[in-house]
Design brief:
3% strand; mainly alpha; 2 domains; Multidrug-efflux Transporter Regulator, Chain: A, Domain 2; 10 helices; elongated; homodimer; DNA-binding; 214 residues
Chain lengths: 214, 214
Amino acid sequence: MRLSELSARSGVSTATIKYYLREGLLAPGRQLNATTAEYDETHLRRLRLVRALIQVGRVPVASAREVLKHVDDESLGRTIRLGAALWALPQAPDPDEEDPATIAATAEVDRLLRTLGWDAAREIGALSPVHRSLVALVATQIRLGYPCDAETMAPYAELMRQAAARDLDRMETYESDTEMVESAVSSAVLFEPVLRALHRLAQEEESARRYGLG
Amino acid sequence: MRLSELSARSGVSTATIKYYLREGLLAPGRQLNATTAEYDETHLRRLRLVRALIQVGRVPVASAREVLKHVDDESLGRTIRLGAALWALPQAPDPDEEDPATIAATAEVDRLLRTLGWDAAREIGALSPVHRSLVALVATQIRLGYPCDAETMAPYAELMRQAAARDLDRMETYESDTEMVESAVSSAVLFEPVLRALHRLAQEEESARRYGLG
DNA sequence: CTCCTTGGGAAGTGCCACTATCCAAGCATG
DNA sequence: CATGCTTGGATAGTGGCACTTCCCAAGGAG
């Protein structure tokens, strides 16, 4: 299909598609001659993923490019490739090591991981952007005076562990590594908002049950 | 304290604080004379909340103003006030009613709520921005070809219901309605990222257990 | 041959969260 | 009292980002 058809089928303007091509978010089509290029279903699918990343996941274009680079890098092993793609997603800004709230948060997170027996997470530790951003987030909570200690987080962490186990079960249904990594990215960027929406809906439901609708 | 001290203690530049004052995110200080205004601990606390909303929660300034307006509105009842504050938070864009993916998503969400017995959520239905954005998110998943039906979501929803019950328990420890609403906003904007970080950390942990660290 | 379409690149737009500058009024110190 | 800093308020400007507009040369259709 031509660029204009790609545009029509995806609902994305040709100008924007050209912009994504320039930014390297989308592979160029097969060049038929100087003024014609042909695109196929894989381009359409990738374009939809890009749109979802940017519009739903609010991922900046530059980060999206990094993420997709790892998704496409077939030279990496499955685990590394998965980690590389997910770690390229935007995280909370890194914590300030000096800040007393950060020091307290680091201690709480470590205590939490020990309590839960999440040894791999402790081993990876500050190497993982996820770990660092968790510390930064807990520090923010502490700074605002909300209790956010290991005891508070542990039951939530256990719920999230159950969700994660289910995520990986779902991922294992994919054949190729590329599909798996792409689904992991989708899961992180698109399924997490679903989870969040379910969470808020559950809060509304629970609140209505306890206090009524009025 | 003076503006400059408020700035020093919060780590926010005076220029930015003046901007927040202008935008109505922060109440003006007590005016001592033409060139001096005095701020207190409540201003510092509110300023930290504003920063957290904007920087951690990525809430646009205009939305933050709406949210805080409801937090401060003591004329409303507890439930309404809570709902008003949370519904002012930015949500996924509203779904396109025409789109077949949206129609399918609406059906799945309704089926999910019936399965779970979340009758209040069904009753509120499309009135709730949360409900609408859930539909939009499910539609996006469907459009990308990922299964996102009632059966897939139900176990996750049950986990989120447990989390929500815990959230409300925590909220009930607050005395005044204002504190409760503020904590609910903090919970939505700041604790949700904590939950998400725990989720991703759990994925890393689980992935390391299943496939090793290599 | 003429006109419309196509793909590509450079420059411009609009939004948003700040930020720099200016100004007049205090206050502090010598 | 003079000088020079700080303060709060207002206005205009900045930088980043996700597009979007404009223009051009090359095809292809009639």
